[in-house]
Amino acid sequence: MSFQIPRGTQDILPGEVEKWQFIENTARELCSRYQYKEIRTPIFEHTELFARGVGESTDIVQKEMYTFEDRKGRSITLRPEGTASTVRAFVEKKLYANPSQPTKLYYIGPMFRYERPQTGRFRQFVQFGIEALGSHDPAIDAEVISLAMSLYQSLGLKSIKLVINSLGDGESRKAHREALIAHFQPRIGEFCSDCQKRLEQNPLRILDCKKDRDHELMETAPSILEFLNEESKQYFNKVQQYLTSNGIPFEVDPRLVRGLDYYNHTAFEIMSNAEGFGAITTLCGGGRYNGLTQEIGGPETPGIGFALSIERLLAALDAEDVALPISSNIDCYMVTMGDQAKDRAVSLLFDMRKAGLKAEKDYEDKKIKAQLKAADRHKAKFVAILGDDELERNVVAVKNMETGAQEEIAIDELITYLKQF
Ligand code: HAM
Asked: How far apart are the C-alpha atoms of 30 and 104, rounded to whole Å?
């Protein structure tokens, strides 16, 4: 019997995994500069958290969750995203009581959605996300957007585009909602069954429908921007002002509604413009969610964040032909001849590693030529050759693989010698 990996998942093997590590390290470093601290929440939560948090009317909750009963009959769901869990932890662990606010958190970890797999769309994918809880300041909106843009830029992506919108506050959304119902209701029969349900549940979702995207009523649907009240307008203007004054170019797209229910005010996505990038061009999505903390049973706390997947980021790097600066060099490969030399090499190898050097040797009793080939494959900076003859004289032959220069060094000096490079 042979086994295959489940559809929509990936094995990330050596050779590829270094890219993931590089991106994750860059993200962590960036978070430290912006003072976001890591939070790790469980991979699964009570289903109700996502139903409430992400929203009953969303595709995620209706069609995409990996939900199962545990042995005691409780409904459990593999997390489809990180915001609801982060806010749950913020409320449950009373992080709002910490004198230092806003609470700025980040996460990197696997998320699960039962979607149709295609380029850039997986059933298990890794999100890097940040959440800032506790501030109404539009400067935080700009900060969150700036961090996402910085990650892409520092990794070398050039063809990216930031699109923003405002979904307004409760009052603005209510007015918009009524206008949407009035707009779609007379001809809702021409829309898919999902949209017919959405009309009552959350008509904003209709604008996000993949099936009815080309219906003429979509084009003429009332724009949220026409319904923003004064406060929401001012808020949105201030966010734009911060972006502009900090050299972050953007487009405003009144049709950007996002696929999760918790958003209000600022919503944004970062897309790839790269030629040859697949059909799904959104690399990152986020926005403000001022009502979510209360929805999850906590005190009223504003919040904003984003998430992006490493999978789509890698696809964008590929599309733009960006090579990450990953070095897989090792410091020293030990080549040995003879049994005594081999034993001595084992101890030398252990010592090198204790001293912080990256070192390797052959474990298959290969011939010298094959050992030298292996040293090449490991991209060794130095090869240390030890035969019984050298051992007798207490020396080792060291070859600098870059220059080709070779010299004999006292065995006891080897580590000091290698460490100077
Ligand atoms: P989202 O738009 O559902 O938002 O997902 C954010 C990002 O996750 C997407 O832009 C994409 O990079 C990645 N992503 C989503 N689904 C998949 C998939 N099936 N395969 C690969 N990548 C995928 C959220 O998840 C919100 N929690 C973002 C947020 C945080 N809003 C506020 N704070």
From this structure: 13
Would you place residue 21 in the very low, low, confident or very high pLDDT band (cuts 50, 70, 90)? very high
Edge-to-edge strands, sheet with 330-337: 359-361, 330-337, 380-387, 395-400, 406-410
Ligand 1 site-directed mutation target among 260, 261, 262, 292, most atoms within 8 Å of CB? 260
Helix and strand element counts for the chain (H, E) = 15, 16
Ligand 1 atom with the smallest distance to the CA of 83 is 27
Burial annotation 48-73 (CB, 10 A radius, 16+ → b, else e): ebbbbbbbebbbbbeebbebeeeeee
CA-to-CA distance for 336 and 390, rounded, in angstroms? 10
Cα–ligand 1 centroid distance for 242 (angstroms): 24
CB 255 within 8 A of CB 164: no
Q: Which domains does the chain have, with CATH numbers?
A: 17-169+229-319 (3.30.930.10), 330-419 (3.40.50.800)
pTM score of the predicted model: 0.94
Q: Is the CB of 259 under 6 A from ligand 1?
A: yes
Strands (E), 34-193: 37-38, 44-46, 66-69, 75-78, 103-112, 124-133, 160-166
207-239 pLDDT, tens digit per residue, is 888 899 899 999 999 999 999 999 999 999 999
Q: How many CB atoms lie within 10 A of CB 212?
A: 18
Q: Angle formed by the axes of helices 230-245 and 138-154, to 10°?
A: 40
Q: Is the peptide bond before 110 cis (omega within 30 degrees of 0)?
A: no
Whether residue 157 is predicted with pLDDT greater than 90 in this model: the reply is yes
Nearest protein Cα to ligand 1, atom 31 = 286
- CA–CA gap between residue 409 and residue 411 (Å, rounded): 6
Q: How far apart are CA 383 and CA 333, in angstroms?
A: 5
Mean pLDDT of 155-176: 95
> 86 CB less than 6 Å from ligand 1?
no
Residue 99 region by backbone torsions, left for phi larger than 0, else alpha for psi between -120 and 50, else beta: alpha
